[in-house]
Design brief:
Elements lengths: L1 H39 L6 E11 L5 E13 L2 E8 L14
Antiparallel strand pairs: 1-2, 2-3
């Protein structure tokens, strides 16, 4: 009787073991990815080349103010440019030639 209970308990606990193994694998993957990004990606310096303010209406009737920016930077020894909302790259105030 004890052997039968052991078999049943093993099958009842198997989903919990599989969930625990899956969560451990996910945590390991997230930690590994974060470490890879920290060591493999290098911070770059961007220079603001153009700034203009904007105001947009949101769905709830409020307005959001911000800046549109154009920046230049060097990545892998190639000059690059980007333009868009400043808040997308963490800029909330800027002037031309800001680094």
């Amino acid at each position: 009787m004890a052997a039968i209970m052991f078999v049943f308990a093993r099958f009842l606990l198997m989903p919990f073991v599989l969930i625990a193994v899956t969560l451990f694998a996910m945590a390991l993957h997230i930690s590994g990815t974060a470490l890879h990004h920290q060591f493999a990606w290098h911070q770059t310096v961007a220079t603001v080349t153009d700034v203009s303010s904007y105001s947009e209406a949101q769905g709830n009737g409020l307005t959001a103010k911000g800046i549109n920016v154009a920046v230049t930077y060097v990545a892998n020894d190639a000059p690059m440019t980007w333009s868009g909302k400043g808040k997308d790259i963490g800029l909330y105030t800027a002037s031309k030639a800001t680094r």
